[in-house]
From TrEMBL:
<dbReference type="InterPro" id="IPR032675">
    <property type="entry name" value="LRR_dom_sf"/>
</dbReference>
<dbReference type="InterPro" id="IPR056789">
    <property type="entry name" value="LRR_R13L1-DRL21"/>
</dbReference>
<dbReference type="Pfam" id="PF25019">
    <property type="entry name" value="LRR_R13L1-DRL21"/>
</dbReference>
<protein>
    <submittedName>
        <fullName>Disease resistance protein At3g14460</fullName>
    </submittedName>
</protein>
<feature type="domain" description="R13L1/DRL21-like LRR repeat region">
    <location>
        <begin position="2"/>
        <end position="122"/>
    </location>
</feature>
């Protein structure tokens, strides 16, 4: 069939090539004549063992030289046909070779003049990468002269990467910007000598790699993971971004004098690290229990984004004073953390803070005394702070820009601060904060003129009908209630929500009825999940409450994931 499609253009994928019996069948596809093809994917199932046959088939599937993108997966031959890597394929820009587990050597790709991106993954039989990879040594063309991105992944037997024979003169990889070597556990030494343009280097799970990088001059981003023997200090002087995922037993301190250009750092599972530079703009710390951060002897005047997870075991009080430019702060699973602090002098300077999230800090009990005086935060998340009883003082005054407040699993939290919540708040989530929900009539929700989205989730054993009179502001456009274990009916107060467009009800097992007056006519989206009695009463035609919801155009009934919404404006969903 393919032989008749001479004007085929764009992209073509040919899968299950193991079903081709002979090379003659592949030849009849006339791939060399399809000059309009831009991208070609060739794939076997990876379970065939006739290496000679597969090589002959791939040889006859040679594409036209106009091709720009080529992917070959699960090819079973021990080597590639000669056309792959021939310099006449001058338009190939991107090449992916994956799961070619029988190949002993990589094809000679160095002479492809336009090749910019190359990925080689899961070549289980390759032990060395050498001169065959670079192509003919008699060529006057620099090997890999156009290559910008090179990836080696899951090369489990790869041990050595030999330099090009005339590397000092020919300078291969002269334009390489990004180099990735992931999960090459036996690779030990001899990487290319000259990588003058390399800006990003990522080495993951290469435990034996001891290589040095004398030809690396402009590297700006470094990622290391479980690479104990890579000489970290040699690579760092010009870095802008550093990521280290474990496996750095000698990494104890990173000082400003050594890394004056470093702006962003992501560190995880570095058990020996105890100090980080002060001049960073972004810092992410995970599972670094011994890290002394923040140090009271430092001032992190440049730091804008900070994330701390399961780290800094001695951190009990987080001093906001030390971070005058901090815009986002995320602290998670720091079991020693008890409070945030800020002096009276500092609080006037928290103008940069835009988002704050505290997650599962089980001993956290307080915000700064006198309130969190930050005029610009738009988002506040508090999740799983089991001992927290009070929100920041005077939120209405000191957090005037707050638009989103999310409270999850804070069982001791039972009231909002005096003066209520900020008037600009438009989204509020209260989930499993049972004491807070129990005092819902005292929270002053009806006094929030900008509130549009409200989610309430909890056992709420005292709630038989919902909502109570005067509980909700008329500004709501979206309302979600979940897990009201005693809720039996929704009452007519819903009719006052004349702007309500979305209503979601989850896990209210006793809920039987909608309001006598029905639902707001503005409603365009209704979602009900795990409410068996209500579902029965709302069956189309026969249900008692069908007439109360029939104004909502329903085009289908389906089972949906809990947080999925269709793009259409008018649907009724049962799940």
């Amino acid at each position: 069939m393919l032989k008749d499609l001479q004007h085929l253009q764009g992209e073509l994928s040919i899968l299950q090539l193991e079903n081709i019996v002979s090379a003659r069948d592949a030849l009849e596809a006339s791939m060399r004549d399809k000059k309009l093809l831009v991208k070609l994917d060739l794939e076997w199932d990876g379970h065939t063992y006739d290496t000679k046959c597969e090589r002959e088939i791939l040889d006859k599937l040679q594409p036209h030289k106009n091709l720009k993108i080529l992917a070959i997966n699960y090819y079973g031959g021990t080597r590639f046909p000669d056309w792959l890597g021939d310099h006449s394929f001058s338009n190939i820009e991107t090449l992916h070779l994956g799961n070619c587990r029988s190949c002993i050597f990589l094809p000679p790709l160095g002479q492809l003049p336009s090749l910019k991106g190359l990925t080689v993954t899961n070549f289980e039989a390759v032990v060395t990468v050498g001169s065959e990879f670079y192509g003919s040594k008699f060529s006057t063309r620099k090997p890999f002269g156009a290559l910008e991105i090179l990836r080696f992944e899951d090369m489990l037997e790869w041990q050595e990467w030999f330099s090009f024979a005339d590397e000092d003169e020919s300078r291969p990889f002269s334009h390489l910007r990004e180099l990735y070597m992931h999960n090459c556990p036996k690779l030990s030494r001899a990487l290319p000598k000259h990588l003058p343009c390399l800006a990003k280097l990522s080495i993951m799970k290469c435990k034996q790699l001891m290589a040095t990088f004398p030809g690396v001059r402009v590297i700006r981003e470094l990622e290391l993971g479980n690479c104990n023997k890579v000489p970290l200090k040699e690579l760092l002087p010009g870095l802008l971004k550093l990521t280290v995922h474990g496996g750095a037993p000698n990494l104890k301190s990173l000082s400003d004098c050594m890394y004056s250009h470093l702006e962003e750092m992501n560190i995880s599972h570095c058990s020996t690290l105890h100090k980080v530079p002060e001049r960073l703009k972004a810092l992410k710390i995970e599972n670094c229990g011994r890290l002394d951060f923040p140090s009271i002897h430092c001032c992190y005047i440049f730091l804008e984004r900070l994330s701390i997870t399961c780290s800094c075991g001695s951190l009990k009080i987080f001093p906001l004073d030390l971070f005058p430019k901090l815009s986002t702060l995320y602290i998670c699973r720091c079991s020693s953390l008890e409070s945030l602090s800020a002096s009276d002098e500092c609080q006037q300077d928290l103008i940069s803070l835009c988002a704050l999230e505290l997650c599962r800090c089980i001993n956290f009990v307080s915000f700064p005394k006198g309130g969190l005086r930050a005029p610009n935060p738009t988002s506040l998340w508090i999740y799983g702070c089991e001992k927290l009883e009070l929100l920041p003082e005077d939120m209405h005054t000191f957090l005037p820009s707050l638009q989103s407040l999310n409270l999850f699993n804070c069982p001791k939290l039972e009231s909002f601060p005096d003066g209520g919540l900020p008037s600009n708040l438009n989204s509020l989530v209260i989930s499993n904060c049972d004491k807070l929900i129990a005092k819902r009539l005292e929270l002053g929700l009806q006094r929030l003129p900008s509130l549009k989205d409200l989610t309430i989730m909890g056992q709420c054993e005292d709630v038989v009908s919902f909502p109570e009179e005067g509980l909700l502001p008329t500004s709501l456009t979206s309302l979600s209630i979940s897990e009201f274990s005693s809720l039996e009916y929704l009452n007519n107060e819903l009719q006052h929500l004349t702007l309500l467009q979305e209503l979601e009800i989850f896990g209210c097992l006793k809920l039987k009825w909608f309001p006598d007056e029905g639902l707001p006519v503005s409603l365009s989206y209704l979602r009900i999940k795990r409410c068996p009695l209500l579902k029965q009463s709302c069956q189309q035609g026969s249900g008692e409450d069908w007439s109360k919801i029939c104004h909502i155009p329903a085009s289908k009934l389906t089972t949906m994931s809990p947080y999925h919404k269709l793009c259409s404006d008018y649907f009724l969903f049962w799940s």
